[in-house]
Amino acid sequence: MSTGKKKPRGKTRSSKLRTDYLSRFAGRSYFMQGDESVAYGSLYAGCDFFAGYPITPATEVAEVMSAELPHVDGYYIQMEDEIASLSAVIGAVWAGSKAMTATSGPGYSLMQENIGYAVMTETPCVIVNVQRSGPSTGQATMPAQGDVMQARWGTHGDHEMIALAPNSVQECFDLAIEAFNLAEEYRTPVIVLMDGEVGHMRERITMPPLKDVKIRERKLVTGDEMIFGGDEIPPMAEFGLGRFIHVTGSTHKETGIRDVQSQDVHERLVTRLCRKIADNRDRIARYEEMNLEDADYVLISYGATSRPAAGALLRARAEGKKIGMLRLITIWPFPEGKVRELTARAKKVFVPEMNLGQLSREIERFSKCDVVSIPKIGGITHTIDEIYNGMKGI
Amino acid sequence: MADQKDKADKRRHRLFKYLRKEVLPTAFCPGCGCGIVLNCYAHAVDELQMDPNDLISVTGIGCSSWIPSPYFMGDTLHTTHGRPIPFATGAKVTRPDKTLVVIAGDGDLIGIGGNHLIHAARRNIDIKVFMVNNLIYGMTGGQLAPTTPAGVPTSTSPYGNVEHPFEIAELVAAAGASYVARWTTFHVFPLMESMQKALTRKGFAFIEIRSQCPISYGRRIGKRTGTEALQEYKETAVRAQEAAEMTPEELAGKIVVGRLAERDKSEFTANLRQLNDEIRKKDAGRRPEDWSIS
Q1: Cβ–Cβ contact A49 with B under 8 A
Q2: Measured between alpha carbons, how far is A257 from A272 in angstroms, rounded to an integer?
Q3: Which of A2, A68, A95 sits opposite B95 (nearest CB)?
Q4: Can you tell me whether residue B175 is helix, strand or coil?
Q5: Do B96 and A87 touch (CB under 8 A)?
Q6: Structural domains of chain A sorted by starting position, each given as residue range(s) with its CATH number in brackets
Q7: CA distances from B60 to A287, A299, B138, B282 (A)
Q8: Which residues contact B6 (CB under 8 A, 6 or more apart)?
Q9: Among B242, B234, B247, CA closest to B258
Q10: Do residues B127 and B116 touch, judged by C-beta distance below 8 A?
Q11: Cross-chain residue pair A92–B56, CB shorter than 8 Å
Q12: In Å, how far are A375, B46, B276 from B208, measured between CA atoms?
């Protein structure tokens, strides 16, 4: 029996093939949907495996990946459901792929157990959730932002999540790359929390030159490092490296071997999994600030809602009102410090969302002033008027 | 110290090298069939002289998922309940050069994960599935399974099972698998041969292994030891060739063993690779101005 013998990889993951192919698009502009853009961003990030199941309004992500992945010797597979989709993604990652899936609310609900598995096994992967109106089948073709809290707490047990919310077609592209990079850096699943509005909206995007795109490669073991502990973010091993790795969603020791009875082993593992993200909150958190320097009133928004919110802001500013806006790009981990700092000098915070007030409660936890939710559900984004009129008392 | 340990290892059984030593002894109950399956599997791998580094074991939740995870030495992915086949699907697509083996139970593979089983058989993806069928949810203490025979009392069917069980091997054969067989833990030599066949034959291979659970199943039907179950398998097993000549009445209470299906059919990952090759060949011949976005 020969152990540890390295064999040539079964699959040629040629980065040259990928860059040659993508260079045909690089530097050019296109008019496309957010769903298509997030797919191209993922290809730029080095994604070579997609497993998914059709669902409105996320299907176009799968359509682009099924058409494009073969060109870069990647693989698109259509699974029997969303549970199987994320299962296949995680299996592909441990075999050496950079992998993703895309879905919407009902499929995202089905994926929750395996999202927890990816957290527990520290599997880098990307899950795009193009949110639609729920609960249940809801308004299947209509946008919403109702999965904000599910993205944070959808899977059981203590955990931290990374979720990014683009508000434009260009940003879908950019954040797909960011999502893959964060997944590799923190060895964790990353959610691209789009909404049906951004997913189906068409805008101009420019695909950047490949040399301008920073891609974080997987940090693999070089010697006999432990892959489930030791460092706060341990290096990964893949199947076939002769390490005989043991990957389990059960509580495990630093070596990967299951130990479900020891209180200290569980505490050490789960605390580390949470801390590696929570402690880096400020490094991960990205947001955009508008007119906040002298703001007495603050709009906090994200995703599609930030577009009419910006309109309401401009109108109020034109009337001389001292209002600014914080647009969250990273929703999870929540930028607690930034919200604390802004609300310390503000009189009121307004939070328009396409739900009945999900993130506004999180904002309340860290706010030193009143937080006013401006909810809207029913599958149609807020108008500028609705947000403007919702900002009472400014 | 290390020398002494090496010497001690050398005195062990020749198949000991296939086990993860730090997790022994196994957690299997006295009389459990899982040890027999592990033994047959290690023999099959050994006789084929397979490099354990070429094997990836994928398992689900339940007693029989513990056969390779953690006991068998090799890369191991211990997944969520019912999902080892789709996890293995992703790994196989990325590493088609590796042999993907799923060992799990009936509750995992046909209960919660039944949909994945038939779809993998339909795709004919090159994964080897050894399903240990003990007719019960053993790990949780003996609840009704989709394989429990009608009338049998379990902890969640205390008045007797009112459902009809699945005939799983036949179902997987109908779904399009390349190779399907059924054996029991009594038939160790044919099971080993069948495992070797499955491990070397391209395509989706499925072996249903009827196995005993004296603690959570046997004692409810008056068979409190593993040997009583093995005796039953010996007496009730009928070879597939003979079963083909028998009436349903004659087959009642029998276990049909042997090869149930073997067919040549194109394999999923090979099809994917062929598609990629064709597309890239076309790409190479295209002029830059012909490019448009997909």
Answers
A1: yes
A2: 17
A3: A95
A4: helix
A5: no
A6: 15-212 (3.40.50.970), 289-390 (3.40.50.920)
A7: 40, 47, 14, 41
A8: none
A9: B242
A10: no
A11: no
A12: 55, 21, 34
Interchain CB contact of B58 with A (< 8 Å) = yes
Give first-to-last CA distance, chain A, whole Å.
76
- B80 and A113 within 8 Å at the Cβ level: the answer is yes
Q: Which residue of B has its CA nearest to A17?
A: B280
Q: Establish if B293 touches chain A: CB-CB under 8 angstroms.
A: yes
B97 inside 8 A of chain A by CB: yes
Q: From CA A329, how far away is CA B55, in angstroms rounded?
A: 42
Residues of A in contact with B80 (CB under 8 A): 87, 113-114, 117, 249
- DSSP assignment of A205-233 equals EEPPPGGG---PPP-B-SSS--SSSSSSS
The complex's ipTM works out to 0.95
Please tell me the distance in Å from B218's CA to the nearest CA on chain A.
Answer: 28
CB B57 within 8 A of CB B76: yes
Q: Identify the structural domains of chain B with CATH numbers, from first to last.
A: 18-287 (3.40.50.970)
Chain B positions touching A80 (Cβ under 8 A) are 86, 115-116, 119
Which residues of chain B make contact with A127, given a CB cutoff of 8 A? none
For residue B73, give the DSSP letter. S
Residues A84, B83: C-beta atoms closer than 8 Å: yes
Of B73, B93, B115, the CB nearest to A49: B93
Question: Residue B88: CA atoms inside 13 Å, Cβ hemisphere, count?
Answer: 34
**Pairwise CB contact (< 8 Å): A91 & B88:** yes
Q: What is the dihedral of CA A174, A179, A184, A189, to 10 degrees?
A: -170
Q: Are B94 and B26 in contact (CB under 8 A)?
A: no
Residue identified by tokens 């030891």 is B225
Please, what is the Cα angle at B56 between A269 and A89, to 5 degrees?
65
Mutate one of A112, A236, A239 to test the B interface: name it (highest B CB count within 10 A): A239
Q: Which of residues 63-122 of A touch B (CB under 8 A)?
A: 64, 67-68, 70-71, 73, 75, 77, 79-81, 83-85, 87-97, 99, 113-114, 117
| Torsion angle of C-alpha atoms A143, A144, A149, A154, degrees rounded to 10 | -40
Per-residue pLDDT of chain B (294 residues; tens, 9 = 90+): 556 666 766 678 899 999 999 999 999 999 999 999 999 999 999 999 999 999 999 999 999 999 999 999 999 999 999 999 999 999 999 999 999 999 999 999 999 999 999 999 999 999 999 999 999 999 999 999 999 999 999 999 999 999 999 999 999 999 999 999 999 999 999 999 999 999 999 999 999 999 999 999 999 999 999 999 999 999 999 999 999 999 999 999 999 999 999 999 999 999 999 999 999 998 887 766 666 665
Residue A13: both structure tokens together: 């993951």
Rounded CA separation A266/A70 (Å): 42
